[in-house]
Amino acid sequence: MSGETGTTEITMTENAMTEKDVLVIVDVQNDFCSGGALAVPGGEEVVPVINRLAARFRHVVLTQDWHPAGHRSFASEHPGHEPLETVEAPYGPQILWPDHCIQGTSGAAFREDLDTNRAELIIRKGFRRDIDSYSAFFENDHATPTGLTGYLRERGFTRVVLAGLAFDFCVRYSAEDARRQGFAVAVVDEACRAIDVAGSAADTRRRFTELGIASLAAAAA
Ligand SMILES: [Zn+2]
Predict the structure, then answer these.
(1) 25 in the Ramachandran plot: left (φ > 0), alpha (ψ -120 to 50) or beta?
(2) What is the pTM assigned to this prediction?
(3) Residue 172 and residue 203: Cα distance in Å, rounded?
(4) CATH superfamily of 9-67+101-217
(5) Residue 123 Cα, ligand 1 centroid: separation in angstroms?
(6) Are strands 9-11 and 86-89 parallel, antiparallel or unpaired?
(7) Which of 55, 136, 157, 185, by CA, is between 20 and 30 Å from 192?
(8) What whole-number distance in Å separates Cα of residue 70 and Cα of residue 67?
(9) Ligand 1 centroid, distance to 110 Cα (angstroms)
């Protein structure tokens, strides 16, 4: 990202991580890694980067995609449709996915090598059958809150740093919503991997620049 117009690159320094900074680790679950139902290319490669990153933060939150069987975002619920096709949901266009992250399954579990011990909160999303939730803040109707905004505000956090899977979906929507909710936001590129459907990774970078979402280098971690 360095050198791209409008992108702010911040290098992490000792004093960058304060009581007001929270690392939100998005959906580092088996189904989003190699061999999983909705594998993000290279998804598991983020784990060591995130573990090192998390060790530098005083506060860490995890998100977990957590669907009931038969969730409306699953292509299997839409006869005649294949994964990655888009259908019209009451709340707008919805990309259809393979069945993934079903509550209580090993696919929905966090990667075993992800250090989850320091997480102060695990926020689950996508548990309503009829609505998907990419963002950790709002479901895909952009109106139903997960409660994360209130939690972060009450804890006094002012900056949200994001890492995880997938860069162009759950990380993207979480970052955009965090910005709209008034937090300073940064995304650690090296700690994310993209699905990249129809240019979605490039779209994400463009939106981040427009919204003033910073790219944070993990190099110093
Ligand atoms: Zn999902």
Answers:
(1) beta
(2) 0.91
(3) 10
(4) Isochorismatase-like (3.40.50.850)
(5) 13
(6) unpaired
(7) 157
(8) 8
(9) 14
Amino acid code (one letter) for 117:
N
Residues identified as active-site: 27, 125, 170
**Structure token digits, residue 128:** 């309503």
pLDDT by residue for the chain (221 residues), tens only, comes to: 443 444 455 555 544 689 999 999 999 999 999 999 999 999 999 999 999 999 999 999 999 999 999 999 999 999 999 999 999 999 999 999 999 999 999 999 999 999 999 999 999 999 999 999 999 999 999 999 999 999 999 999 999 999 999 999 999 999 999 999 999 999 999 999 999 998 999 999 999 999 999 998 886 44
Rg for the chain, CA atoms, rounded: 16
- Beta-carbon contacts of 23 under 8 Å, excluding residues fewer than 6 positions away, are 53, 54, 57, 59, 60, 61, 161, 162, 163
Q: Collect residues with CB below 5 Å from ion ligand 1.
A: 65, 126
* Beta-sheet strands, E only, within the chain: 9-11, 21-26, 60-65, 86-89, 92-95, 119-125, 159-165, 184-193, 214-217
Contacts for 182 with CB less than 8 Å, ≥ 6 apart: none
3-state secondary structure of 94: strand
